[in-house]
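Morning. Coffee machine broken again, so started the prediction first thing and wrote up yesterday's gels while waiting. Chain of 95 residues, entered below exactly as on the submission form.
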Amino acid sequence: MPITKSELVKQLSKTYPNILKKDLEKFFDIFINEIKLALKNDERVELRGWGVFLTKFQKSKMSRNPKTGEKVLVNEKKSINFKMSKDLFNELNDK
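Came back before lunch.
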């Protein structure tokens, strides 16, 4: 079951009962927006013990529409690459 933003904020408010829920939501929004901004500026985002987010450029290329077989030009674009840390890998794999 995926965790949603509201569930995450609810869990944080249980862990930190003296911090208002609206402040936790604001903190979470700032945190996510800073990650987005860094990735948009082609910066590396490293969260120690969790992983690294990187932007990767995909060159423009000629591709094919599988439905019609027609050739289509796919423009250059950015994608996000995530590499988990060794600590997270070991925790997920019970090592």
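The chain is about 40% helix and 30% strand. Going to sketch it on the whiteboard this afternoon.
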